Amino acid sequence: MRRMFESATLKLTAWYLVILVSISLLFSFIIYELSTTEISSRLERLQIRIEGSSETLTLPGPLTLTDVRMNQTREAQASIFVGLVYMNLAVIGLGGVGSYLLARRTLQPIRASHEAQSRFTSDASHELRTPLAVMKSEIQVALRDPKASKQDYKELLQSNLEEVDKLTALSTTLLELARLDNPNLSRGQYVDIAKIVTKQVEARSDQKHRISVTLPKSPVFVEGNETMLSDLVQILIDNALKYSPPDSEVTLSFGTNGRTCKLFVTNQGEGIDPQDAEHIFDRFYRADSARTSEGGQRSYGIGLSLAKKIVELHEGKISVTSTPRELTLFTVSLPQIRKKR
User: Is 253's pLDDT higher than 90?
Assistant: First the structure.
């Protein structure tokens, strides 16, 4: 892939340079013709004035005034030609460097997108193979065991069902990511983000005692898609609960300045190392210490990338700050609407 993009960069550089040199040569030709014509015309007019003058002009040797004019014209043409040659050489040199840098910059987003897609496909394939390999291994072991009982087969089916549930959840999230990569969703709703947070907390009756919410004094409206924003809040709450001790507290609070609404989600736990924080929103990225949650449940590492995509579609920003083995804070900033219309 690297060779492909290097080749594409060189080809694009060549095309840029051809276009630049063609324009330079065209303008050089025009400048040469205009300059030499103007010089020849001026010298000719000067000759006519001198010949019509009563003053006597002494010329070197047997040269006539016409010979002098022609010599001056040829010298001027040669000087202009040499200057234009040097200028075009400079254009080729500087233009070649500039064209290469511009070609690299032009192809960089495409290259980054291609690399992300390749990495995403590779990681997705790996994540899909893992549950399938577990299921296949368990089934093979059960089939080779002549003493397997009905209870053993029941446990096998239960285990396989868990893996199927994981595959279903992964497939659903992958489809959601693909859908958001080519969004065609209505974002014209006026949504009270605080109300969404309240609903998501109420929906977690078994974990509600661990969640502390500080609601704003008045509704906080943002323009967007209510379903997508609900998914965003759900991801952040689930992530905070998953990667914190069972008896720890997860806090949600708000901040607003009238133009921007901020949602803060804080949890305790192992935290995120600074080098991992830079990639925590990348698809399928998992820090070594975060490959499993506090409860031992495996994570696929795509929830936060989905959250980031939702935030970006709403023209907002999401960030994380973490002190290892202390606190982790996720901050979501969204454009706020002053009042519901």
Answer: yes
CATH code reported for the domain at 189-337: 3.30.565.10
Q: Rounded to 10 degrees, what is the CA torsion of 219, 220, 226, 230?
A: -90
What average pLDDT does range 30-35 have in this prediction?
91
Residue identified by tokens 């060549």 is 14
Place of tokens 């000087």: 79
79: which 2 tokens? Answer: 């000087």
Between CA 26 and CA 251 the distance in angstroms is 68
Name the amino acid, one letter, at 111. R
In angstroms, the CA 24 to CA 44 distance is: 30
In this predicted structure, the answer to whether residue 31 has a pLDDT above a threshold of 80 is yes
Distance CA 190, CA 3 (A): 48
Q: What is the DSSP letter of 60?
A: S
- For residues 282 and 305, is the Cβ–Cβ distance under 8 A? yes
Q: What is the CATH class of 122-181?
A: mainly alpha
Give SS3 for 16: helix
* Strands (DSSP E) found in the chain: 189-192, 211-214, 221-224, 250-256, 260-268, 317-322, 327-337
| Residues facing residue 237 across a β-bridge | none
Report the distance separating Cα 172 and Cα 170, nearest Å: 5
Cβ neighbours for 319, distance < 8 A, ≥ 6 positions apart: 330, 331
Contacts 24+ apart (CB under 8 A), 195-198: 195/219, 196/226, 196/229, 196/230, 196/233, 197/233, 197/252, 197/263
Contact residues for 21 (Cβ-Cβ < 8 A; gap 6+): 88, 91, 92, 95
Contact 102/16 with Cβ under 8 angstroms? Answer: yes
DSSP state of 246: T
Q: In 3D, which of 286, 279, 277, 294 has the Cα closest to residue 328?
A: 277
Give the least confident one: 10-24, 232-246, 299-313: 299-313
